[in-house]
Amino acid sequence: MSPVPLLTWINGEIREPGDAKISIFDRGFLFGDSVYELVRFFDGVGVGMDLHVSRLARSLDETGIEGFDPEDYRSICNDLLAGIGTGDACVYLQVTRGVQVPRRHLPDPGLAPNVIAIASPSPSLAEIGEPERLPVALVFDPRRERCDIKSTSLLDNVMMTIRAEALDACEPIMHRDGVLTEGASSNVFVLHDGRLLTPTLGGERKILAGVTRQLVIEAAASLGRTVEEADIPVETFRNAEEAFVSSSRRLVAAIDSIDGAPVDDGRPGPVTMSILGELHRRIASETGALQGR
User: Fold this and answer.
1) N or C, which end of the chain has less CB nearby within 10 Å?
2) Rounded distance, CA 105 to CA 99, Å?
3) Which residues are catalytic?
4) Tens digit of each residue's pLDDT, the chain (293 residues)
């Protein structure tokens, strides 16, 4: 039986997309007053699941959204994977502060959160060969300070992605004061003078602590390569020997051009390939997804 294209979970009920509805007075809809996570599954095993649950707990704590146990993310994912009929999927979870009538900025105490999740099939590990290649565009980072919280308030990210698409790029790489921050939906890594660099967490300009970012750092270490957290000037990025982004959906994607100029020869470099290969090996060791290949 073929997998179901898309399935939703809303406050404990699995629904078809056409029946997936919540109130227009939900604060997630009106204010972006909600947090989210997305986990990539291979053969029924969530990549970095413990890290996702931990980050969700932090987001809920930082925003003061109450009434949902982040550990329940695991069982919600299991229910949806069973429903769509495949263990190769992405599961998006969003927890809103809840419904408030009438609309006002200050939330009432004791609101019950709305919890929604969406599962969609994705390629198996065996189907992933070379990394996706991404042309990127450099854009100024106009966002507010708390980008370390995985909030759904993503209008700036959407606008920058639209701008990147107009420049024939697939992902905007943001910068402020001449220093890289992150992608609109990814973390960035740069190989320069033989050093593998990534922007610093918790610096003057906060960035999201990406789960796959952490997995890349661990994979690189197992290959004998240290990832250095550093301020990365835009010009260093433009002159990179290799560059790639990491995200839960893409794992690792090679940056093949920056503002239309190729990175080296435009092909994924050996460091990018080795790190992706190590991530594959680690995932396969947990899932057995490549057995018999």
Assistant:
1) N
2) 12
3) 150
4) 568 789 999 999 999 999 999 999 999 999 999 999 999 999 999 999 999 999 999 999 999 999 999 999 999 999 999 999 999 999 999 999 999 999 999 999 999 999 999 999 999 999 998 899 999 999 999 988 888 999 999 999 999 999 999 999 999 999 999 999 999 999 999 999 999 999 999 877 789 999 999 999 999 999 999 999 999 999 999 999 999 999 999 999 999 999 999 999 999 999 999 999 999 999 999 987 444 43
What DSSP letter does each residue of 3-53 carry, written as one string? PPS-EEEETTEEE-GGG----TTBHHHHH--EEEEEEEEETTEETTHHHHH
| Residue 110: DSSP 8-state | T
User: How far is 94 from 76, CA to CA, in rounded Å?
Assistant: 12
**Tokens of residue 267, six digits:** 């092909």
Could you give the domains of the chain? 7-122 (3.30.470.10), 132-285 (3.20.10.10)
